[in-house]
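User: Can you predict the 3D structure for this chain?
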Amino acid sequence: MTTAPEAWQALADWQPQRLTDLVSADPRTRLAELVRTVADIRFDFAKTHLDTAATKVLADLAAAQDFTGRRKTLFSGGIANPTEGRAAEHSAERGEGAPESVHIAQALHQRMRMMVDAIEAGAFGEIRHLLHIGIGGSALGPDLLVDALGRHSERYDVAVVSNVDGAALAEAFAKFDPAYTLVAVASKTFTTTETLLNAASALQWLEEGGVDDPLGRFIALTAMPERAMEWGIDETRILPFSETVGGRYSLWSSIGFPAALALGWDAFADLLEGAAEMDRHFRLTDGTDNVCLLAAFADQLYANRLGCQTRAVFAYDERLRLLPDYLQQLEMESNGKSVTVEGKPVAQRTAAITWGGVGTDAQHAVFQLLHQGTHLTPVEFVVAREPDHLLDDAHHEMLVGNCIAQGAALMTGQTSDDGARAYPGDRPSTTILLDQVTPRSLGALIAFYEHRVFANAVLLGINPFDQFGVELGKEMAKGLAEGTFEFDPATQALMQAALGE
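Assistant: Here is the predicted structure, written as structure tokens:
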């Protein structure tokens, strides 16, 4: 059996062919090998440098890194997060995992549904607005869901506030009437300083707005209910979730409460089922037929053979404008590591820097670099067949046409005697084509990205489920606030200039 070092060396020895040659040599076979449809989503890797030799090398790497075993551990509720000694059970929230964990998740979902029903029935009085306070995974997921799927909903107005900058809260306060506002505080540990400061300001806003029982308008979304109760929130208004669900994987749990309320429970259930469909595909499908593993193969090819440091994601759909932001945390916090699961230095590059934007805006901003710059950047296009409006079909036709044309232009390029007008081509892209942007398809899409992250982590031999890298800066900020940390002279001078200390 090939060892991991042997597989990495084989990847280093592999020589890429030009994309145009790969596509034109045997188009039918290439499309059969590199286009997959899962959950009614078409994943097209035909314009990447993956070929039979590369996928063979990467499949050997997956075997050497025990991809099958680590995947089984993930879905069985085993220790998938060894540095913290716990499972990673976000898939159990969708019904795919250890039976006991699935049962607990379903019971907690039922508790959340009862809360939604109570709000709709008027248990909190007349509610028109929901102010959701969180940060990181406690905010990015709900924000993406509500923005993508709630544009035509007239159920509730939702504002997601994550930044501790008071301007963010002030903007939400200006839009909402405290008399008709419910506040959800999302924090896995219920100790997140930025979130709790924002929550305290929201409480003061309700008090000053004349709400009789301001704490009675608070709902806690947390894995530590006792801390939410210590803060003052009644146990009956706490929606728990399991501590084995990581923050950036938590939108399927009670962290998704804003989506369940704003979109309705049926939509939230469809979101879970779409994700579960991708779970089943990832769990039961092997080799390059597994679209999540195939995507990870492409990622490793570009990061660790062709030297790409970034990956660009462009949503050619206004509803998915927050997808690149969501993926930044999911991918960079999960796989932005420098040691293996054994604590040894990683010899390869880990997570690429994820960035992106919305088409067609980005074409007039950053695509110059993608087409003619000196950086090789794999590009990912996400687009839907059906639009979200009743305007002239020309809008959607132009949008989709631009998306497809950009991928073709990146690949083929164009020669010219004038260097300023020459396009080198041979620049890779992947296209993800949804039939529609629905709760089900969005659930499947997000789960695809989650499992792609996990597959990349297995290939690299790292743990995607811890995030100690975010802690040091937080500890130093706390030390600054409490005056308990000895800072260097340069930092002290900067504090004096910024804070007058």
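The chain has three domains: 4-61+271-456, 91-270, 475-499. The mean pLDDT is 96.
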